[in-house]
Amino acid sequence: MKISQITIVLFSSLLFACGASSTSESSEQAELPEEDQPVALREGITIEKFAAPQRGGVRINYDPATKTILYNTKRGDIYRINENGKSEELIATTEDHGITSLQGFRLQGDLMFLVGNIKSNGDKGTKGKVVRGTRQSDNKYQFELLAITEDYGRTATIYSHEFNGIAVGQEGQYIYVNSGARTDHGEVQDNDGEYPEAREVPLTACIFRLPADGKEILLKNDSSYLASNGYLFSDGIRNAFDLAVSQEGRLFGVSNSSDYDHPEEMNWLREGRHYGYPWEMGGVPNPQQFADWDPDPEKDPFINTVSFAHRGKQFRNDPDFPPKPANIKFVPPIQNHGPDANIYRDRETGIITDADTTGATVGTFTSHRSPLGLFFDQDSILADPYRGDAFVLSWSDGKTQPLMRPFSLLGADLLHLELTYEPDIDNYSVRSYRIIGDFQGPTDAVQVGEHIYVIENRGNIWKIKMPPNLPIALK
């Protein structure tokens, strides 16, 4: 299931998003544990149930001032869980912050940043909204508007991703906000006659950079305005549902691709760069841009017949598809060297292949994994081989999601990511390792010391203890 499908199944319903050895995905598919809790796949990792929050949880944060876990639901409720996980307190609702579709939530000191959308134009349209909350003496928050967009069109499909991912820059001066695509792959999507002939618009499929102390900023649906005012940071991002900043202060995002069998991307996001959407996803061209494309699954094996896009006839011959910009060089996704989450469909043969058997790289993850919950071990608290590295969750697995099933039964897991900067290409490469499997609907994660807390939309928070980077004398 894609994040585009999570928009309906997960968010709209509110129930519904490394060790010494490493085994590749293909060799692990035979034996899958049946326990109703996640399973550690590496030595030294332990997992326990921390709390049973409200169902439909989206984001999870840690507040060092109160030493408590906070989380939100898509309908706009924000809860604080006490230290032992046994009780929770509702600390804010939509009435407090004014966001009716709340998908982004980040704490920074005494500030709380919220990201989401509100309805407009009789629910045919929407407005992205960013709110800043300031901590009060009772540890609740007073909210004020940081930024809001002009109206732009929702669609009559499941593809309206809206405002969701958020990260705070290393110095705290800026926040970065993802605005997801309003289409599956750049096709025309009106809304029962409203917003006719609309594909993507200037307010969608991009990353905004906003001053953290901004007030009542209006984000116009105008590319020149957004660029000239410094609000548009990166473009051509289908849906970077999660953003995170590395120890070096570099911004990364994980983005899901379309219902076509494109790989799922991880990108090093830089100012002024374009990452290819809707002309490319996962390093694979979008065939709808080609006038001679025949969207017949018998002729194009990248079309999955169970997908929403195929069943809704969104894959189609499209002679009016906008041409690829001639003056823009697309930044390719980070290439995955495996050994996990690197299964792909070969562009020449159409055959699904584990890249470990061919020596190929994938840009970046197995198709339809739906990566989210990205974070870095910012303070190098964890022991090797995890120290200072990145981690990412995957929503989907092939056991439960038909789109992913042809590729792998695995997914719904936590990946350890070893990123390496490659000077010759001025980009990163990654090696990915499955370290925890068998989550059910994981949507976000937060690191607190040597612990990682993972929230599942079904109403669970898991507390994962990782090996800490202890002083030699204490080992």
Structural features, described:
The structure is a single chain. This protein is mainly beta. It has a single domain, classed as Neuraminidase, CATH 2.120.10. 6% of the residues lie in helices and 37% in strands. The protein has 5 helices and 31 strands. The strands form 8 sheets. Strands 1, 22, 25, 26, 27 and 28 form a 6-stranded mixed sheet that branches. Strands 7, 8, 9, 10, 11 and 15 form a 6-stranded mixed sheet that branches. The longest helix has 10 residues, at 3-12. It is globular. Mean pLDDT is 91; it is low at 1-34.
Helix content: under 10%
Distance between the termini: 43 Å
What is the CATH homologous superfamily assignment? TolB, C-terminal domain
CATH architecture: 6 Propeller
| Sheet with most strands | 6 strands, mixed
Shape: globular
Backbone CA Rg: 21 Å
Can you count the beta strands?
31
CATH fold naming:
Neuraminidase
Mean pLDDT, as a whole number?
Answer: 91
Give the count of structural domains: 1
Key phrases:
475 residues, mainly beta, Neuraminidase, six-stranded mixed β-sheet, 31 strands, 37% strand, globular, disordered N terminus
Write the layout of secondary structure elements.
Elements: H1 3-12, H2 25-28, E1 39-40, E2 46-51, E3 57-63, E4 68-73, E5 78-81, E6 88-92, H3 94-97, E7 101-108, E8 111-120, E9 125-135, E10 141-149, E11 152-153, E12 163-168, E13 174-179, E14 206-211, E15 217-219, H4 223-228, E16 232-235, E17 242-245, E18 251-255, E19 265-269, E20 280-281, E21 284-285, H5 308-311, E22 335-339, E23 343-345, E24 352-354, E25 371-376, E26 390-394, E27 414-422, E28 427-437, E29 442-448, E30 451-456, E31 460-465
Parallel strand pairs: 10-15, 22-28
Antiparallel strand pairs: 1-28, 2-31, 3-4, 4-5, 5-6, 7-8, 8-9, 9-10, 9-11, 12-13, 13-14, 14-16, 17-18, 18-19, 20-21, 23-24, 25-26, 26-27, 27-28, 29-30, 30-31
